[in-house]
Design a protein that fits this description.
This protein is an alpha/beta fold. It has an eight-stranded mixed beta sheet with strand order 1-2-3-8-7-4-6-5, with helices on both faces. 41% of the residues are buried. The structure holds ligand AR6. Ligand AR6 binds next to helix 2. It comes from Dioscorea alata (Purple yam). This is Hismacro and SEC14 domain-containing proteins protein.
């Protein structure tokens, strides 16, 4: 269809390369951004300096969407590890915009970084909170070199894809320095296309 035709013209000035369903962008002298369609629970690089990001909720209580898929694949020890994280307020283990890290248990990747994106219609400045959710400080502190994100807040939390992709790509560009590779593993074609458009525009 139309979307595919536009994807096949993605090589602009040598900055992007299209191969096998993955799009590559150089985001700094030492780091690369990769966009791909797929299931983030299958993603890993080396099992020691890699991590996936989960789109969690403030209670760190297993939910649906990508969170449900990650819990299903990681096994029940993941929920136990989440519940060991102390509450900072009653019922809140990870306030919106913040992140917490756990082992990945049965997943092939080394760690899971649980981040809580904004609920688009409930927060006054969702872009500020989404930017915070994509900031990579916790990953850096844990020596993560390869990281994969889903489209945080783009499911149950209702963030429009085209707005979310601009926030995601611009934030990653800003915080990419200490990472070898930053990946987005996107489950839906429409989301993937929004990310691709933002990457072409902003990188
Ligand atoms: N791999 C990659 N992306 C996925 C996968 C997967 N296996 N499954 C779904 N997605 P959502 P949110 C995409 O709803 O909006 C949960 O109940 C999906 O296409 O998972 O941040 C939590 O516990 C969508 O674009 O997360 C929270 O309560 C994106 O993941 C709440 O939902 C995010 O959709 C968080 O809502």
């Amino acid at each position: 269809g139309i979307a595919r035709a536009s994807i096949s013209t993605s090589a602009i000035g040598g900055r992007t390369e299209r191969k096998a369903g993955m799009d590559l962008f150089q985001i700094s002298p030492s780091s690369v951004l990769k966009l791909q369609r797929g299931d983030i629970t299958k993603w890993f690089v080396n099992g020691s300096t890699d991590a996936i990001v989960n789109a969690a909720n403030e209670r760190l209580q297993r939910g649906g969407g990508v969170d449900g898929a990650i819990h299903r694949a990681a096994g029940p020890l993941l929920q136990a590890a989440c519940l060991e994280i102390p509450e900072v307020q009653p019922g809140v283990r990870c306030p919106t915009g913040e992140a917490r890290i756990t082992p990945a248990f049965q997943l092939p990747v080394s760690r899971i970084i649980h981040t809580v994106g904004p609920i688009y219609d409930a927060h006054r400045h969702p872009e500020v909170l989404l930017r915070k959710a994509y900031s990579l400080q916790l990953a850096k502190e844990n020596n993560i070199e390869y990281i994969a994100f889903p489209s945080i807040s783009c499911g149950v939390f209702g963030y429009p894809f085209d707005e979310a992709s601009n926030v995601a790509i611009s934030t990653i560009k800003e915080f990419s320095d200490n990472f070898k590779e930053v990946h987005f593993v996107l489950f839906e074609d429409e989301v993937y296309n929004a990310w691709l458009e933002s990457a072409r525009k902003l990188l």
